[in-house]
Specification:
GO molecular function, one term: tRNA binding
Number of strands: 19
Structural class: alpha/beta
Helix content: 25-40%
EC number: 2.8.1.4
Radius of gyration: 30 Å
Pathway: Cofactor biosynthesis; thiamine diphosphate biosynthesis
Number of domains: 3
Family: Belongs to the ThiI family.
CATH topology of the largest domain: Rossmann fold
Enzyme class: transferase
CATH class of the largest domain: Alpha Beta
CATH superfamily of the largest domain: HUPs
Amino acid sequence: MKFIIKLHPEMTIKSKSVRQRMSKILSGNIRNTLKPLDETIKVRVDWDKMVVRSNNHDDASRQLLIEALGCIPGIQSFLEVVEFKVSSLDDILEHTQAMFGDKLAGKTFCVRAKRRGKQEFSSLDVERYVGGGINQRCETGGVKLKQPDVQINLELDDDRLYLVSKQHGGMGGYPIATQESVLSLMSGGYDSGVSSYQFIKRGSRVHYCFFNLGGREHEAGVREVVHFLWKKYGASHRVKFISVPFEGVVAEILEKIDKGHMGVVLKRMMMRAGAAVAERLAINALVTGESMGQVSSQTVTNLNVIDRVTDTLILRPLIATDKQDIIDQARAIGTASYAEKMPEYCGVISQKPTIKAVLSKVEEEEANFDFDVLNTAVQASFVEDVRDLGKVWEVPEVEVSEQVTEQEVILDIRAPEEEEQSPLEVDGHQVVHLPFFRLAHQFGELDQNKTYLLYCARGVMSRLQAIHLKEQGFDNVKVYKP
């Protein structure tokens, strides 16, 4: 089994030294990716192509290699080929006819040849001789140079003939590690997955930083999509996954920051933390999935205020991309199915969030913030090898109840302003209000002889918090969905 690898065009226009370096890196990436699938893989680097050989010839192995080659950055396209040793035009004709003759019945065709090395004939000679010979010997529809039914592609390399049986599209882009590493701030949604993919394709080693706002279930989903992205498109290199516990930061924002500025301040805290993690890993840039105008914190004014918090370069590849286009690309690369089931974090709910934040006002609000909370979160961040994310995380089951018994207490965990605007009343049953950002520290102070039904408007935060409490050893929790 053999494949001819065609380089991404942007690689071919580089200087000789740069092209050689990129080709060397790409050949190593191909080996690293394919060797776990097929130990017989050999890769040869030529100036204008690479040749990948395998001693396995079964269809299952072939399909695995095709799928893997199609997801390696730096490959523009690749050809499945059959190799023969030839010494004359007659040899070329015989092998070409044997492979394609039966497929040309009643069909127009043409022959396209590429040549490398020393032969006594030109590429045009090959096309005329082989095309004319096949047309005379086989029941074809005739030679047609423009838009034929079948185009026969063959390549000559000295005395070797490569007949192309099938052509496959590649991923394009630059080989991973030809560009500098980046740290992608991952939420698990459509945007962060697509922006991470774009930097993988552009040749960066993409490390992943996740700010955990919603407990173990949220992190389990993000770990899943990160592992998928790495395994499918970036498996040639080891990268890191960093989880930063941000629930305390959220609680501090909800306690200390003006409601209109919560979103902007949260993003500034994330950029501070991301920059600290990046510095620890010797990475010079952060990547986000932000798109201009998509939410209130992503106006030009607010993004400017957010960026002022760090000197670290913040890259936003989707900044002018429509949401539907982002979703379409997520479907194409395979991350949409993960994004669709990702729980939406409804914790930081701002009433009338500002779309034109003033830097001085934001800094004034942040003066009330206890930055020891942020520093503690960064220090508590957990770094893992991305390969370990393939392990399945066990998430506790949480019972959902529509009815309330006498021994159960409804625990309204909504933010204070939301509870004040729409108080929850259930006839004959006690309703206790304990905001979600105080729940982890104060739940143990409640009467543990009772069962608590956690309530929030969408049912997402209540489920996340119930799981979090169960992981801490509290079994007397359910989710209330009237």
